[in-house]
Amino acid sequence: MNKPMEAKRAPEVKPWVRRVVEAAGVVLPANADGERRLGWWGVEMARFLKFCKSLPEGTDLRPAMEGYGRYLKSIVPPPQDWQLEQVREGLRCFQSHH
């Protein structure tokens, strides 16, 4: 059973994730909740980058993100709404940074 990100232990925030989010101009609360969100966004950004390795070289960001969305919808069982929102939030930062 999948639990909301608040119920799971937060992943460590990688320095590159913090730089991407800061470069995107996103300000999160300087508390445990902000760090938890940042950690999960980093997980989602890393998953997206791994997915991008399977795409043809030179694929633009927008088609890559659309393909990733289709991929997520094809997973069985599909991600829950809160998980999809987590993906959207993390990738918005990533998209804003590029």
Structural overview:
The mean pLDDT is 87. The chain has one domain (11-97). It contains four helices and no strands. Helix content is 62%, strand content 0%. The protein is globular, with a radius of gyration of 14 Å. Helix 2 crosses helix 4 (81-97).
Secondary structure topology:
Layout: H1 15-23, H2 32-52, H3 61-74, H4 81-97
A few lines on this structure:
The protein is built from four helices and no strands. It is mainly alpha-helical. The chain has one domain (11-97).
Give descriptors for this structure.
98 residues; single chain; mainly alpha; 0% strand; 4 helices
* Bulk shape: globular
Residue share in β-strands: under 5%
Flag low-confidence runs. none
The rounded distance between the terminal residues' Cα atoms is 35 Å
Overall structural domain count: 1
Largest sheet: none
